[in-house]
Amino acid sequence: MLDRINELAKKKKAEGLTAAEQEEQKKLYKIYLGEIRQQFSATLDNVSVREKDGKVVPFKQAFSEKDKK
Question: DSSP string covering 12-28, please?
Answer without folding.
Answer: HHHT---HHHHHHHHHH
